[in-house]
Amino acid sequence: MAFFDAIVEKLRLNPKVERVSAAIGSPISRGEGWVRILQKQAGDRFRISAMQTMSDGEFFNIVKMQLIAGRFYTQDDIRDKTNFIVVNETLVNQLNFGNQVIGKKIYISGASEPSEIIGIVKDLNLPGDLEPPRFFWSIGTDYPDILLQMKPGQEFDAREMNQVAAQINRHMKVVYMKSIEQLLALQSAPLKIIVGVSSVLALLVLGLAAIGIYGVLSYSVQLQRFELGIRMAIGARPHTVFFQVLKDNLAPVIVGLLLAFTVLIGLWLWVRHTQYDFQTTSLGWLLPPVLMLLLTIATSLLSVWQIIRKPASETLRGN
Known about the structure:
- By secondary structure, the chain is α+β, with helices and mostly antiparallel strands.
- It has helices at 2-12, 59-63, 75-79, 89-95, 158-168, 180-223, 225-233, 238-272, 282-308, 312-317, and strands at 17-24, 34-39, 47-55, 67-70, 84-88, 105-108, 115-121, 134-137, 145-150.
- The protein folds into two domains: 2-177, no CATH class; 188-317, no CATH class.
- It has a six-stranded mixed beta barrel with strand order 2-3-8-5-7-6.
- The chain is elongated.
- The N and C termini lie far apart (90 Å).
């Protein structure tokens, strides 16, 4: 532990570094983190499983945690060995302390004394993950991750980190070093793959839908071939025939879109009352129905094209 304290102090003196923090079980760490059991009272049957993050006071500033109530613990709190914790929104909801959460004490498995809640932070919104119940503990950390916030325009690589570590212990080396942007990119990589595969499948479904709609509409138009030929023979213009066919084809499509819109509104209202963070945009609402309408217009034109481009006499003869 003394090695890491010394490294952190050395890094704080580095002119490139704005802030330094030591943490273990961080939400942005590559590790899995630890799960602890929490109780409101010692021996209480009411238990909650929560992720534990052990950190110093600078951690909250580097990660830019949003404080909802109370305060963060400080380096002075850690030096005084105070059992202070900061909890996230999800954990607060599960603890069910009511309106007064700050100052409440909870028992953490493995700890001899209860810990006092001094702050509440907003849940982190990380790509691909729902933030679990989590508490941040103001105790020392063994073998922590070291987080660096660089000054504007400055960079710090593994070689420089090893040079600092060698001043304390020449056997210590950097095992893993990534920027927050790189860590977020790694976390979002599975989502990008899912989006790519979903896009390909969506295009495939759209293509199959176009083929299916064209087949149905083409068959329907062929059944009306003589009726359309007679209309053209008595003076109907090709565009008039096309718009008549389009009107007939759009009616069931619009009914289907209205039903789908009703179902989507219901699902959207339900999701808003769950813990899932589901963001919508105007483009997301408008694009699917617009695509379906354009697809219907295009397939209607293709299905009737062979009729309206010929003289009415050929249509009536079945050519």
